[in-house]
Amino acid sequence: MTPAADFLGLSQYLADEGVQVEAALERAVAGLEASVAPELGSAVRHGVLGGGKRLRPILCVSAYTACGGERSPALYDLAASLELIHAYSLMHDDLPCMDDAELRRGRSTTHREHGEDVAVRAGALLIPAAGLLALRSCQALGCADDLARAVSGTLMEAAGAGGMVGGQWLDLLGEGRALGGEELNAIHRRKTGALLAASLVMGAIAAGVDQETQRGMREYGSSVGLAFQIADDILDVTQSAETLGKNPSDNDLEKSTYVALYGLEDARERAHAQVRAALAALERSGLSAAPLEALARYVVDRDK
Ligand code: GRG
């Protein structure tokens, strides 16, 4: 366990974990570059290593250590598998056939930099790479085969039709219509929430905890996921494209958002209610996890 007394503050924690996550992502990208054409490798590098908060891998590492596991390069490789899926989703989300975005993480989007055909291929390449990385890093962590399969299955399930891709699909279908709260929740529990929740569950399974603790991590992750999305909608209208490092905004794209539906103040209250639910789930799971507590709060307090 990570005793609360060892917790030195979230900024330092995010910086320290970020360094290890970047190193693992560099390993993953270098491995891919060695096996594909240079133009494809460059696009992968652009999409994966171009900044970002690295929240999903940091949640995975935090869950694993809260569940009693030790940090190691293999743990960060496991965590990096989540970021490969996230990076592919951003590369494809930015394509002309979806959001047609020009800016991501303060830089030109992958298709603007490398061409649409290359960005499509580079994104697709990351999906099996992420599945394999999750499986192999679990084996390197010494997980039994059933646990390694459960971890990589959790990642693929969250990325798939019942998770992120399904949520994106519903989101695209909902464009041009004013969606209600139930519909918005259904979209974002899949589109954003599934991968965030999987980050926690993967860390917990890999650490070998029982089903009840895994359930606790899933509940915490689901609430954090919804809080994250509501906060995203709030930032979309309260922060500049420059601060967020991306455009167009959801507002420009005329998407249904929590802010459009509930107004800014109510949306803020709903985000905080999800944080309280996440903290309650954490307490019920009985884990001593100062970083997870701080991360739940960070999700709504962040400025980008
Ligand atoms: C074919 C229907 C279909 C889908 C393909 C494109 C796609 C899969 C899914 C898109 C999923 C998506 C874009 C979800 C948005 C998640 C989100 C809130 C992203 C921003 O996450 P941050 O703030 O970004 O963690 P950084 O840059 O910090 O990593």
Tell me about this structure:
The chain has 304 residues and is mostly helical. The chain has one domain: Farnesyl Diphosphate Synthase, CATH 1.10.600. It has helices spanning 10-33, 38-48, 55-66, 73-93, 110-114, 116-141, 145-159, 164-173, 181-206, 211-238, 241-244, 258-262, 264-285, 290-301, and strands at 103-104, 107-108. The protein has a two-stranded antiparallel ribbon. A hairpin with a 2-residue loop joins strand 1 and strand 2. The chain is globular, with a radius of gyration of 18 Å. The structure holds geranylgeranyl diphosphate. Geranylgeranyl diphosphate binds next to helix 4, helix 8 and helix 9.
Percent of residues in helical segments? over 70%
Fourth CATH level, the homologous superfamily: Farnesyl Diphosphate Synthase
Summed up, the domain count is 1
Identify the strand order in the major beta sheet. Answer: 1-2
Summed up:
The chain has 304 residues and is mostly helical. It has helices spanning 10-33, 38-48, 55-66, 73-93, 110-114, 116-141, 145-159, 164-173, 181-206, 211-238, 241-244, 258-262, 264-285, 290-301, and strands at residues 103-104, 107-108. The chain has a single domain, classed as Farnesyl Diphosphate Synthase (Orthogonal Bundle).
